[in-house]
Amino acid sequence: MSGSGSSDFSVLQDTPPRRNASPARRASARTALDLSDEDESPPRRQKRKLVEMEEEDDDGTPSKINQLPADMKEWAKRVKLSKLHISDLVQFGQDYTTETNEDACPFYLYRLYGQSLLQTQLSRVGISTTNELREEVVPVLKRARSMLVRVEGDVKELKKAAESKLTDADAIYLERNPDLVGPAFAERYNTGEVHFLALVSSMIKKKMNNLRSHIRDKYHWSLGVDKNKSKQDLYELYIKLTKSYGVPVTKERVLRVAYIRSFAIKNNPRQVDGEPVEGWWEKLDDVLNATYEADKTKFGAFQRHEKGISKAGSEDNDVRSAFAAAAAAANANSL
Questions:
Q1: 128 φ, ψ to 5°?
Q2: Assessment of whether the complete model's pTM goes beyond 0.70
Q3: pLDDT score, position 29
Q4: What distance lies between CA 194 and its chain's CA centroid?
């Protein structure tokens, strides 16, 4: 639609030139139109409808613009009227002269019909442009929405997953391994979009808070200070803390559980048969960090060592054997 595609909507304000017809010509035209309904000649052809098809000016067909009156010809060029509509305008003038026996179509009728053709052309340009945008934009929006739905599902799964053993290093671990959550999540996460990262952080924080609350309560209940709660040994506590997550036994994890248990004995995580102690985890973190700094001063600098999150078999066979023996003894006592 090369001709129509370049039309400027501002030309709607640019009407074809008006030429004053003589009073006799106007009266003759009105008389001919008034008498045409009483004529006994064959029925008049119906007024031509606007052609319901796309305008194509580069289809090789010659333009009929030279068949228009000179002033209308200049107007059609100026507003870039398409060949299809020029042909329609020429036919309109021919139909008028045939039906009225006038020498020429009055310019005011040419102007009205030409303006309606131009409005139709510009409307079709707008509709065509809208359709093209819809074809280009809608699929992209659908793909984006689909990705957001998948990402939302991935984040919810991350929140619910029993294997999401969240620690203080989870944010860093997730940043380095976003594919562990899912491909859609990784694609969105790697864009670095601020609002999405904030959403992920809030999910991690919420999961972390829930997990620490449960762990704190299990440490407290293992002390046996509450009613209807029996005291647990280190093995029983370790199993309570790790069984549902499938965490393998390692010496480092056993020592960590033992350390927190010793801290809990001196600093109850909860009031006896009461509410949680506010700031208990923060106090534990402070004491642990102070111990680390004191050891560093006493024994020299050393790097903290953390084993990766894995379900691989533990290399700490002695520790595993000790716990296995404890488990066997516990089972024997229950028989």
A1: -65, -40
A2: no
A3: 47
A4: 14
